[in-house]
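Below is our example:
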Amino acid sequence: MTAKPRKRAGRKQPSIALALGAGGARGLAHIAMLEAFDEMRLRPSVIAGTSIGAIVGAAYAAGVPATRLRAHALLALRNRTKVFSAIFEARVGRFGDLFARGNPMLLDGERLLDRFWPQEVPDTFEDLAIPFVAIATDYYGRGAVPFSSGSLVSAVAASMALPGLVRPVGIGGRLLIDGGAANPLPCDIVSGKADIVVAIDVTAPPSLEEVRAPDAFSTLFAAAQIMQVEIAKSRMKARPPDILVKPAVDGFGALEFFKAGRILETAEPAKEKLKEELANLIG
């Protein structure tokens, strides 16, 4: 039986701000957390997202129901041939750049979003159903940059611009990279904007199950994950959310998107925990 929040007589239901963190493929667990909101008939008053949290959060803020996001993700990631074809089409540079620049397969984030986002996602922040903030990092300014207006695809592409994989995005004279480098769990961005702040943490250190020495690319990703974990801890100490949910997805790698079904299944207990905690605070 689906849990529903209870309202106290004469009292208005509190507003809820939602922060969705970075974590690569582990961030598909955000979809299950959004299902909790839909099942309880709750609507966040504002959403902030970093990297994968920005990708999922923007789609939900566009008005796409969480069940539709789940179906879309599972369908989009089911056919490996189509996925790799879309990734190949989103590449920038030439294979000849391998020796000149070291990376022939740097990806264009905006092209990736065009290929993988639901069609309902609009072009601008202003056309979203729910106010939304995407977090990127200013490469030269060395700090987090929140975006809440203008081009949605450009801001989210900047938020997901992981160095070495997705190329940086230029907006307003700034060169922007992955938001996880400065603010992987942006609960502080929505602090004070609602009565209740909910944060979903999908950051994770490298898996202990990795028995062999990592290659250079794996080491780069692992270093980024370690930094994100520590940054998130530090920021939450300063401004802790009212509800913090950490789905048990640590065992999944940042690029294991083809395990979408298993990630969503693993997130189910955290989804139920979120529903219980929301009901307790709202009731």
